[in-house]
TrEMBL record, chains A, B:
Keyword Acyltransferase: yes
Assembly: Homodimer. Probably interacts with PlsY.
Catalyses which reaction(s): a fatty acyl-[ACP] + phosphate = an acyl phosphate + holo-[ACP]
Residues in coiled coil: none
Protein name: Phosphate acyltransferase
Basic and acidic residues compositional bias, start-end: 356-368
The protein's Enzyme Commission number: 2.3.1.274
Length: 368, 368
């Protein structure tokens, strides 16, 4: 339950900082998810930022998990409906703030939070700062697809509602690095989300972005395949879909809503008659496999890209399975030195001048 | 096969003008869909704009359909990848142009086309002109939902990639009229698509639009329920979702892609083993009911709103079932005097001044 006991009983190689207070799933979901991950992976250690009175007793019941968890007591919490601006002013000393500080100070490699997305991004930018060359960080998710890995990468799904051509270029570069490491692809195929695949479609910033991304692909270890449509996000013809946070957020939530409607209608269909119930029984294993494939809890974890450090946003209503999926992703990225690799790619892009004359001047603070 | 023979054998009360040349499904899909609708509904008459050498022989094989179809020979066609600007310059005398002209001249009440969406909207605006008070026409679709009718209305899904607050207000007014007639709802609940339901979320034009729509709801026979997210589009908590054509198009195609992926995975799940195949057999009726519910062909038909006349865009790759669904919708709207009702609503909105000071000045030509 503290650093020394963790060192005594095991030797975690990757420390993950967990904001245990922000989500809707409560302490049970957090501790349950941590315990699931700990049981599967002996390399993970946790720095847990949560209420001692709640998490202390829960950890005592799980000695294995307790042995590699350092509980850092905190009582202040940022609520799910807190505005980002207020979180910035009053966030100091909250579980979210402290979870990010653990990454900033090098105690942990990755932070995981189920809290308020806007506040988490605002505090992440404040504590970890944007990586050199990045104006707007982005949130990337894994999206169920027809590709062999089962997933594509999509970003930005809601870090910011705006993105200009230069931001979209950075999203492509950062997202390609994520696809290389998260999906183990040597040369990800990058598409730019638009209302049609024809070159003349869409707003002018998309045309500028298309040109810039195509240029950067030459040295960027990715392939630019042009505009893609909403129906292509899950296709096997693309690995990474780049868009602004407004369209990306709407696409993501629309897909979640559609999958949930189809699941519900499917359930109704099987419950309709004794015959269909019998059918469901015979097909049970196959249906479970399908359910697993499209279960949003199993791909839980939006990755914040473009910061000096890795932050993972788990779904606010994640249960233990969802929290465990976010921790698994955090471990994978930490193990790969993901944050440094993204930074190296961005630096190389700036060095080769692909950001071009259209790049905005980042704030001075960000250059330092 | 011409006007006199139609009058001889039956007396259609609603004439639908069909552009038979633009789609990818070919003549078989068009004639097949017309025949399906004709068999079900004796009130429909068709004005068919297509190649005489192709459609003449096809009609001869279907005497019932032929008896209430006037074939108007045309050979020029606008291709699926034609740019709207070029379609405007060179569209005269094409099947699409002539199909719209039939509505303009009062020979038909509604036009149906499977052709190029951008060209169809451009030519519709040229031939039918925008309704008074409308800057940007919109495309509305029926979206599978948890509501009793099974559907919600969503607009704009791609008529234009831009929309300001005043355009979004008009979309709400026109869409509410569509929901009243298309879904038979007395007082549709209107939501504005955003990246979150909290009032502070999203771009400033969305905040302006929210205020304007709320004001207009007082006399507009609809209820404004606030911002909705992508996951709410299929919910039972809203009847009409208003958005700009960029986000709406991406949401629509993302939903189509997601539903298609889930269908494919479901098919794979049932084909996996002898047990699952047996399961599928037992659940066959129920699965067919589900398939019917989420089959995009059955809700085929985007309605162009904001023109002096009704135009329905059927999916480019629609088969006979899809074409027939578009014709059914065309009939329903024509029968209701839909176009006049939308115009009356817009006029009443302008009269009560809800468009407010923020409304842009429509072009002079549009006032005439």
């Amino acid at each position: 339950m503290n650093g020394s006991s963790a060192a005594d009983s095991s030797d975690p190689s990757v420390w993950i900082s967990v904001d245990a207070m922000g989500g809707e799933g409560g302490a049970t979901a957090i501790i349950g998810g941590m315990a699931m991950s700990a049981a599967k992976n002996p390399e993970i250690g946790f720095i847990l930022h949560g209420d001692e009175n709640v998490f202390g007793p829960l950890l005592q019941k799980k000695p294995e998990l307790s042995a590699r968890t350092r509980l850092k007591a905190v009582t202040k919490v940022i609520s799910m409906d807190e505005k980002p601006a207020r979180a910035l002013r009053q966030g100091k000393g909250t579980s979210m703030w402290n979870a990010l500080e653990s990454v900033e100070q090098g105690e942990a490699t990755v932070a995981v939070s189920c809290g308020n997305t806007g506040a988490l991004m605002a505090l992440s930018m404040l504590r970890l700062r944007r990586a050199p060359g990045v104006d707007r960080p982005a949130i990337a998710v894994l999206w169920p697809s027809r590709n062999p890995s089962g997933y594509n990468v999509v970003l930005d799904v809601g870090a910011d509602i705006r993105a200009d051509a230069s931001d979209l270029l950075k999203f492509a570069i950062m997202g390609a690095t994520y696809a290389r490491h998260g999906l183990e692809l040597k040369r990800p195929r990058v598409g730019l989300l638009n209302v049609g695949t024809e070159e003349h479609k869409g707003r002018s910033e998309l045309h500028d972005a298309a040109r810039m991304i195509e240029e950067a692909s030459v040295t960027g270890d990715f392939e630019y395949i042009g505009f893609v449509e909403g129906s292509d996000i899950s296709s096997a013809g693309v690995d990474l879909v780049v868009t602004d946070g407004f369209a990306g957020n709407i696409a993501l939530k629309t897909a979640e809503g559609t999958a949930s409607l189809v699941r519900e209608l499917l359930g109704n269909a099987f419950n309709h008659s004794p015959f269909s119930k019998l059918g469901a029984l015979f097909a049970l294993t196959s249906l479970r496999r399908l359910q697993k494939r499209i279960d949003p809890r199993r791909v839980n974890g939006g990755v914040f890209l473009g910061l000096n450090g890795t932050v993972i946003k788990s779904h606010g209503s994640a249960d233990a399975t969802g929290v465990s999926a976010a921790i698994k992703l955090a471990f994978k990225l930490a193990k790969n030195g993901f944050s440094d690799r993204v930074a190296a790619r961005l630096a190389s892009d700036i060095a080769t001048g692909h950001s071009g004359p259209e790049e905005k001047e980042p704030p001075e603070a960000n250059r330092a």
